[in-house]
Amino acid sequence: MTDIQKLTIGKALNLGLRRAMEEDPKVLIMGEDVGKLGGVFRITDGLQKDFGEQRVLDTPLAESGIIGTAVGLAVRGFRPVCEIQFEGFIFPGFDQISSQVAKLHYRTQGKIKMPIVIRVPFGGGIGAVEHHSESPESLFAHIPGLKVVSVSNAVDAYWGIQQAIKSDDPILFFEPKKLYHSGAMKSEVDTDATPDPLFKSRVVREGTTATVVAYGPSVKVALDAATAAEDEGKSLEVIDLRTLSPLDLEPVFESVRKTGRLIALSEAPSESSLTSEIAARVQQECFYSLEAPVLRVTGFDTPYPPAKLEEHYLPDLDRVLHTVDRSLAW
């Protein structure tokens, strides 16, 4: 009998983690407050109660210690899943991630694998203070040896976290925190389905006027903009990247060859970012199909602002629609 449940992204992650732990006793969860509290966003709620303190570990407030311990566990055959409480706290562990997690498989000529998943709640929109709303994903996508995933919906959250845990490669798993418990983002998850491949982009709305490519929390903004644009007689094609490294841009190239226009959307600052890479690759592959320059809608090249200003910082529906109009006017 098919098991279909309507889930939020947060609940889908919880069930995905649970299923991974049920299927493999080598899967461990570790991080600050992930046990008794269930994580600050309650993503690991109930897991320590059901699997015990030996498999769901509350750690000290030390990201370097969390990642360093995960490296040792991976060497011994475990599959650690680390939670970084907020994306702005990941940098004390950056050395371990870039120097050890990303390199040990290569350095040992394949003898040592690093099946580590690092879960990172990221992005703004929750009214938080400094270091709680950043989008540092481009920094990790730049590091050879790491894979970087960002989910935007409950289906990908449920299956994606399981696929990441089963991978022998280290994966940073970026989760849009403002959408964790959004009722508007609930979707039906078939827990008996065959999931899409993890490292493939997906067209989530077809269109002909212009292409909008996004990931994580920005996918909802892109879809909302596409709905609003339809009232103006414009048909936007929306593509969810799903994985940020390696980038699967073939669906983007195919779409741009059809529409002739591309808007790249992200909450991260624009300079030296994933949207920069997308723009460069698209003009390289689709130059003769473009009817206008690739345009970008991003956060600003400033530190993340105080909460009362974040609605002016984050890309929204109006900024996307304005950029579509700029592209069409070219």
UniProtKB/TrEMBL annotation:
Oxidoreductase listed as a keyword: yes
Pfam families reported for this sequence: Transket_pyr, Transketolase_C
Species the sequence originates in: Amycolatopsis decaplanina DSM 44594
InterPro entries, A to Z: THDP-binding, Transketo_C/PFOR_II, Transketolase-like_Pyr-bd, Transketolase_C
Positions of the Transketolase-like pyrimidine-binding domain: 7-182
SMART domains registered for this protein in UniProt: Transket_pyr
Oxidoreductase among keywords: yes
Cofactor: thiamine diphosphate
Keywords recorded for this protein, A-Z: Oxidoreductase, Pyruvate, Thiamine pyrophosphate
Protein name stated in the entry: Pyruvate dehydrogenase E1 component subunit beta
Gene Ontology molecular function: any one: magnesium ion binding
